[in-house]
Amino acid sequence: MPLSDERVFCIRVNSDCLDHLVKLNPVNWWGNFNLSPGDALRWTLGPLMLAVQRRASEWRIVWCRADVDVETDVDKWSVEPNSGLLDGWDNTERHAFRDTSSTLHVLPRLADRPVVTRPVAPFTVPAGESARLFVSTPLWVSMAVDHADGRLLDMPIVRPSDTWFGVDTQVGELCYASQTQGRMSLEDLPLRLHRAITSVHIENEAEAGLRLERLSLTVPYLSLFADRNGMLWTQDVTVQSGDHRDAVTLRLSEQPPADAEEPVMINGPRKEPDAPVLRRALSALFG
Amino acid sequence: MPDWLTPDVAWFDFATVASFARAVLYVVLGIVLARFVASVTQRLLDTRLSDHQTLIVRRVVYYAVMALFFVSALRELGFSLSVLLGAAGIASVAIGFASQTSASNLISGLFLLAERPFVVGDIITIGGTTGEVLSVDLLSVKLRTFDNLYVRIPNESVIKTEVKTLTRFPIRRYDLLVGIAYKEDIARAREVLFQVAERNPLCLEEPKPLFIFQGFGDSALNMQLSVWATRENYLELRNTIHEQIKQAFDTAGIEIPFPHRSLYAGSATEPFPVRLVDGVADAAKP
Questions:
Q1: Contacts of B206 in chain A (CB under 8 A)
Q2: Which residues from A are below 8 Å from B when comparing CB atoms?
Q3: Which residues are CB-contacts of B257 (< 8 A; sequence separation ≥ 6)?
Q4: Whole-prediction pTM value?
Q5: Burial class of residue A219, CB neighbours in 10 A (0-12, 13-18, 19+)
Q6: In this predicted complex, what is the ipTM?
Q7: What is the pLDDT of residues B42-66, one digit of tens each?
Q8: What residue of A is the nearest CA neighbor of B231?
Q9: How far is residue A16 CA from its own chain's centroid?
């Protein structure tokens, strides 16, 4: 999905004069990149390094992951022309086309499964009260070209750990485990380029307290926004526990919270919700 | 004209020929109608029942319709059904004694159909055989083992013995046994094991990995680390986690000991003296 205000980075690489490569200076690692046949770009997103080369009838993508400390090194990123060969990388994918188009759309994307997060410590929302939790979820990097079936890549920047969310080991759902804990204050949440922030409002309208030990966030239904500072957000999520003990209402707003300054939507949801208000079992969202 | 040249016209009278023709017509009609009704039944039940159940019902309908028309054809030919049924009764007793096993397999197959402990595509273990279920038939279950062998297991065996369905639930637990030397710290080893489980993305965070101290073994402190994975990732987790634990133990300096024995000459004697030589027997030295 192209950006509403397209930022296009053009490079012209003269294969005979590799010393005179045009230096890129993008604001973010995502955007629309124009490549001529033979050109290659390299992205370094924390532990993930990937390079893309356009050829006359082929797009070639290679990548590898470095073994780095995710929490301290993941904020380093760069986008620059790749002057070396694309051989010898750990993984290679090739996409053949009759003719390759010139524009490569690179976008962050939210996870393809629900993400389970735990608060720093379990807490209870008394009857009639509400609480707000900030949750960060892992991001994927997505690359596509102008073609009906043009998605070339869709992979996590940092591979999150699998986890099972369900009442027992027989019935449940495979999810990702958030590597950070949910926080009640935004300042306490470590902000990283490979994660998006979701503000979750929990409203307990039942007659008994609601104990929160872990939360499964239905990330595939959320959209991705970028604020003025380049931080990535999803829209506000409100979880309402009603009179019926086992049912909750999940409400997705149109925009991220006010903490996100001048948000711009950069990617839509992976799955379209059936309705703006979703009904879920209590056990499907809260452990 | 001699009598023996005169044909017995009664044998070829029109009524007999007509009966015979009707009998043949019944049989042909029965075959056609049986196929038609069976295929209609299959189309109606395809979405409601499993493939195996649909196949069984189709066969039952086919043979039932065929039997009806066949009996009608026999009546048309003048056969007395009561005599036939009597003969069939006697024959069935004889056949029953001879086919006890097959009948038992057939009945077991029907019970399996109703109980459905596994379906086509599941991976099961019966006795010492593990394989993918190819079909659940009237008399037997067909498996394909992982080394691509075809195994036929009678339904009676399936009903009578323990069957493990490995693909019934979405996640599985792998119990990894590891021993560390007696000189090592158990708490530190436990911490290293949990870190390995946490770093492995295939290892589910929930249900949490489990640590169990198995006991003081002959040569090592025996421990168990139980980790969970989806059944699709089970084999990959099993292969990767051993390697990761070995690397982590090597990095942490935790020894996984070989089995060893201590030898004593007696309760009050010194240990056996050991002298290192250069590969040349002392007697051969100048």
A1: 116, 163-165, 177, 214, 287
A2: 116, 159-165, 169-170, 172, 174, 177, 214, 287
A3: B179, B180, B181, B182, B219, B220
A4: 0.71
A5: buried
A6: 0.75
A7: 888 888 877 777 887 888 899 999 9
A8: A174
A9: 38
